[in-house]
Fold:
Amino acid sequence: MDTQSVDTRTQEFLEYVQSGGQVETGDWMPDEYRSKLVKFIEMHGNSELMGVLPERDWILRAPTLQRKLALTAKIQDEVGHAQLIYRVVEDLGKPRSASLDDLVSGKAKFHNVFHYPTKTWGDVGVIAWLVDAAAIVSQKALLKCSYAPYARIMKKICWEESFHILHGRDVILAMVTGTPEQFALVQEAIDRWWEPLMHFHGNPIPAEEDPMYVWRIKSQANEDARQEFLDGYVPQIRELGLSIPDPALAKDEETGVWSYTEPDWEKLRAVVTGHGPASEERLSFRRLSREDVAWVERVVLAEAA
Amino acid sequence: MIYEVFRQERKGQPLQHAGTVDAPNERFAEIYAREQYGRRQESVALWLVPREAVSEIDEFPDEFEMKYRRVDGYSIKARLREARERAGTLEAAPTPGTTE
Structure:
C-alpha cells in the first residue's frame, strides 16, 4: 500500500476514533496507534503485577485474619488483572514473555506509586484507599477507550477495584477510631504518600498534545483526572481529622478548580525510569521469581504438547 | 491456543464477550477462565470457544438499498396530512412529534 493511501487511511482512522469509533482486534490500525496501544496497555499490566509487591509484604504481618484474607483476595485480583491485560497486549502482537523481559530489564515502565516502599500498616491502608482511588479515576475514563477489547476488560477491573477501595477505607477507619498511635500511623503514611499521589496522574500536558488522548486511548486529560481525584477524596481525608501536607491545597469555590503546590515533575520522571526508592529491589524480586517459576511454564507447555 | 470467553450475567441475559484466555488445551482453558472471569461468582455461565472455531461475517452489502423493506423507506407525512384534510380531522390530529 503506497504512503499516500496509508496517510489517508490513517487520517480517516483518526477521525473515526475521535468521533467515538471503536476498534476490534482484527481491524486495520495505523502502526502508531498499535504501538501506542501496546505501550499504554503493557504499562497498565506491569503496574498491576508490580503493585502486588508492596502489599504481598504485609500478608503475614496484617493485624487480623480478616485483613490477611482481604489482602490476599486483593492481590489475587491484581494478578488476575495483569493476566487479562497481558492477554490483550498479546492479541496486539507482543508476546507476554517479551513484555515481562522488558519489565525486568527496566525497559518498560510501571506506575510511580509502586516504586515506593511500604513502611507501616498505615501505608497499606493508604495504598488500598487512596492509590486505588486515584487509579479508579483513570480506569473509569478507560471504559471509553477506542480499543474495544481493552475497554471490555476495564469493566471487570473497575468492578473489582471498588472492593479494594472499600477495604482500604475500612482499614483507615479502623485505625483513626483506634488509639492515638494508630491515628498517627495513618497521618504519617499520608504525609509520605501525598507526593506520589499528586504525581500519579502524570504531568498536566494538555489533552490535544497527549498522543494517548489524540488516539482516544485515554479519554481524559491528566489534569482533569487529578482534579477529579482531589474533588472526591480531599473531603473524605479531611472529614476524618487527617491533614494533607500541602498548605497550598485549596479549592476555588467559584471555578471549582483545586490549586496546589506544583509537584516536581523531574522527580516523577526519575522515579518511573527506575530511580525510585524501591524500584531496583522490586525489579530484582520480579526477576528472581520469574526464574523460580520458569519450570511451571515448561511443564504446562510440555503437558499440552 | 486462544479461547474466546463469553459470560452470562443472569439467566435470560445474552452471552457477552468478556475476553480471552491463552491455554494449551480445554482443561487448562477452563481453569484459567474460572480464575480470570469467574473469581467472584459474577456470572451464571461462561462459554469457551476456540478462536479458530469462530467464523466472522462482517460485510453486509446492500447494493440495491432495498428501503421498501425498512421503516426508513416510508414517509407518510404528506399523504397523512392530505387524508386528514379530506376527512376534516386535521385540527383534532395530534401535533407532529407526538405519538401518531
